[in-house]
Amino acid sequence: MKKFLLLLGMVTCLIGTAACGKADQVQESQLQIDEASLINYSDQVVNALNEIVTGGMQDQYASDAVISAGISSWESAMSDLGAYNGVTDHKVEIGSDEAIVEASVSGADHNAVVTLIINDQGSLSSITVNVERSMGELMLNAALNTLMGMGTVFIILILISLLIGCFKFIPQIQEMTPGKRADIWHDLIRGAGQIAQSLQLLRQRHRLLQRLLKKRKKPQMKS
Fold this sequence. Notes:
- The protein has helices spanning 3-21, 35-54, 65-81, 135-165, 170-175, 178-214; strands spanning 84-94, 98-107, 111-119, 124-132.
- It is α+β, with helices and mostly antiparallel strands.
- The radius of gyration is 28 Å and the shape is elongated.
């Protein structure tokens, strides 16, 4: 239930043991931990993230900002990742005051990279999950976002033009009877509603294109 606390305790003990054994030497790095321990630690963190999200235990870690952010990042990536297949590779960088571990995660639909940053006290300072996409997917998503933005801008410009064009009718409206004024305002409100419906339709088409993108042929998994 408290896997993260146990994992953090393990890394802290490893760092403390190494530091005590070399206390009489001048060290270039404050972080004394070997690469194999970091790889094992990252595997356990990734597995714990998956178990927490699939088990619906997110609320139990809400008090820890770093872990909670990592859980949210994993939860957001799951829709693109698909079924979790495990960790396939690691990249470790050990600096003077922090260690960075990038764990490559294999999924049924996409792969992802989980990045862990561990400070010199043996505590997690950051957990992020980034889904890997093909160049075609990135270009298509960028094109959809561009079209969505351009369409929204054009619709807003049309709306502004219509509003400016209505200014010439203001004197005529002021001279009309209350009944005719109500009819005109009703027409204006109906026109604004049609424009809002057009914006909503544009958003729906954008979401539909994104869903079609996800249903494309799944990328081949690296052996």
